[in-house]
Amino acid sequence: MALTSATTAAATVSSPSRIIRRFASSPDSRAPSSLLRLAPRRGAENSPRACSWHRLVVVRRMDGRARALLGGLSDAGGSESDEEEEEEEHALRGGQREGEVDDAVALSAAAVGPERWDVLGLGQAMVDFSGMVDDEFLQRLSIEKGTRKVINHEERGRVLRAMDGCSYKAAAGGSLSNSLVALARLGSSQSAGYPELKIAMAGSVGSDPLGSFYRAKLRRANVHFLSKPVKDGTTGTVIVLTTPDAQRTMLAYQGTSSTLSYDSDLASLVSKSNVLIVEGYLFELPHTIEAIRQACEDAHKNGALIAVTASDVSCIKRCYNDFRDIVGNYADILFANANEARAFCELPSTESPMSATRYLSHSVPLVSVTDGMHGSYIGVKGEAIYIPPPSCIPVDTCGAGDAYASGILYGILRGASDLKGIGLLASRVAAVVVGQQGTRLRVQDADRLAESFAHHLDSLEFCSDV
After folding, report:
1. Where are the annotated segments for Disordered (predicted)?
2. Which residue(s) pair with 273 in the sheet?
3. Taking Cα atoms as reference points, which of 155, 130, 131, 154 lies closest to residue 142?
4. Cα distance between residue 298 and residue 300, in whole Å
């Protein structure tokens, strides 16, 4: 990305809590003041969980009328408990109780929530319908494999009708929510001995049954969705089609998620957040760039770290000037895959991901670039640290980058300064997600990973004391 010297200067001017103070100095530098309270407190009493954990992804089966979108679903697999199953069915069939409870919880969390949110995500709120298909299915519907396409209501109906009888999973999806759920699960591990992370999301859902489903699912995952539903709005959906070679193709129907405004409620949330994450998909939606700019400006003024996810190559190319403006002037952290990083830098496909990482790290304090089975890179001050990939048999690559981002954020929020260790954690989180069907990090895996990372930090602290 060709940034002017003025833009570069703006990107590196930091308040005391900006990430550049941590990673632009020696590896032994202390965490920024706003994050010190999140540093490990081994032996401290664990924070109680706000609620019991439940599985996020629900296995369902479509019937001929695509009832999932009309407020009804028939079971193809059971929930973890009868109570959860009843709540899900009530929400998806348009019951009022779930919506009313959702609104009350959201308003309460926004008004009397924590003094500061550890992380606030600003992104698209989409319900995912994920299913396994073969190449012939994609060819029959003239869908290009491995791409992401924005579709209209009629196109969505055509694909869903073609999936009649297919087994699929419904989840509170969207790229950012995948990262936030994984982060919340890592941050709620009782075995790691850390204080629980407080995670929130703002976005746009409709007042329809899918909107209630989305909000309820995030709430169960300890991610507080704090935006009010749009009256008479339609919640966005993404159809995720995965082929046997683990490649995924996404068809996005934006619905109400294409509307986002920076109102006083959102401004209040931004002002009391330690980290603001902006999902790159928002850049392609009408009238959202000004809301993004205002949120970043307020986050910057209040000393929060600002992270941006690249999200998609085509999105970067269509909205290049807006990405350049926000990333160049506000971003402390940039998450991208190899192709997205090259698109940011306007480099040819023959250029290595390491080169793109180094290039971007001259303008963004911390750059995270993933390269699939080839590993990943973390860039700081013109240097790129290579993170080797863990062994993994891929089952579903959807959500791999989202999971990786959650690992990076978790390491930063826990006060770690060992970039290689943070990268290794992130790659392990991604490998776990890639090795399963579905985009969510499971609770038991999050516990194991968080505990392992805590032991890693303890060993580093012990070595430094010695």
Report:
1. 70-100
2. 117
3. 155
4. 5
| Assigned domain for 34 exists | no
Return the higher-pLDDT residue of 82 and 330. 330
Two tokens at 286? Answer: 């009408």
d(CA 251, CA 238): 5
Torsion sign (Cα): 317, 405, 35, 223: positive
pLDDT at 2 over 90: no
CATH number of the domain bearing residue 415: 3.40.1190.20
| Residue 404 tokens, joined | 């990786």
Which pLDDT score, from 0 to 100, does residue 201 have? Answer: 96
> Which residue did the predictor score with more confidence, 406 or 232?
406
pLDDT digits (tens, 9 = 90+) for 232-276: 888 989 898 988 887 889 998 988 766 788 999 999 999 999 999
**What total number of domains does the chain contain?**
1
3-state SS, residue 319: coil
Cα–Cα distance for residue pair 124/266, rounded to 1 Å: 15
Q: Which range of residues forms the domain containing residue 196?
A: 114-125+172-234+255-465
Q: Six-digit token pair at 251?
A: 């068809």
3 state SS for 323-370 = HHHHHHHHCCEEEEEHHHHHHHHCCCCCCCHHHHHHHHHCCCCEEEEE
In a domain? residue 30: no
- Mean pLDDT confidence for 88-95: 43
Tell me the whole-structure pTM to 2 decimals: 0.76
pLDDT band at 327 (very low <50, low <70, confident <90, very high): very high
Specify whether the CB–CB gap between 224 and 250 falls below 8 A.
no
Residue 293 lies in a domain: yes
Percent pLDDT > 90 in the chain is 44
Residue 364 in any domain: the answer is yes
| Strand 167-173, strand 126-132: pairing | antiparallel
Consecutive H or E run containing 111 = helix 96-112
| Residues with Cβ within 8 Å of residue 225, at least 6 apart in sequence | 106, 125, 200, 201, 202, 203, 205, 214, 215, 218, 219
